[in-house]
Design a protein that fits this description.
17% strand, 7 helices, binds zinc ion, three-stranded antiparallel sheet, alpha+beta, three-stranded mixed sheet, 46% helix, 2 domains, elongated, 6 strands
Length: 173
């Protein structure tokens, strides 16, 4: 590495501290020859994680998307952005460990649900209702049953009911 101003390679480290995401180190550096100060960020190089889509094509895993889907599900709920960022990071790490470098799309949804169920029940039910399109109705009903077992859900019984009511042929016509 060299000084961005004068190109000098002999740089001094003034200060090192952990980055806000907890997975990087920020170093404040100074160039002794021109006194320019700047910051470098050092992080572990991770193996790329790919997502296997339903049509079997591959895409890069995007932690930001995981975060965003949880943020939407947590709209107006008392869940902090920091909690969701830390959760998104944890989900990425779990998937990386479990699937090495290729993870099926539906496993991401499952991991998100697992985490949301421990964070906020309403957000969990919201996410699960969107997630429906990825899973069979049977799986979804099973999931809602799990939610029903949670005492905390009592005030939101009407919401559950809406989600698990699947119109029969008669009701449709
Ligand atoms: Zn310099």
């Amino acid at each position: 590495m060299h000084c961005p101003s004068c190109g000098n390679e002999d740089l001094k480290v003034l200060d090192s501290r952990p980055g806000s995401d907890g997975e990087s180190i920020r170093r404040r550096r100074e160039c002794p020859s021109c006194s320019r100060r700047f910051t470098t960020i050092e992080r572990i190089e991770k193996a790329r994680l790919f997502v296997i889509k339903r049509d079997t094509s591959r895409a890069d895993f995007n932690r930001e998307k995981v975060f965003e889907s949880m943020r939407l599900a947590c709209g107006k709920r008392p869940v902090s952005i920091e909690t969701l960022q830390a959760t998104a990071l944890r989900i990425e790490e779990q998937l990386q460990k479990k699937f090495d470098n290729e993870v099926p799309t539906k496993e991401i949804g499952r991991a998100v649900m697992r985490e949301l169920s421990t964070i906020d029940t309403v957000a969990y039910v919201r996410f699960a209702s969107v997630y429906q399109e990825f899973e069979t109705v049977a799986d979804f009903a099973e999931m809602v049953e799990t939610v029903q077992r949670e005492e905390a859900l009592n005030p939101f019984r009407h919401l559950q009911k809406e989600l698990i009511t699947i119109p029969t042929q008669e009701e449709k016509s």
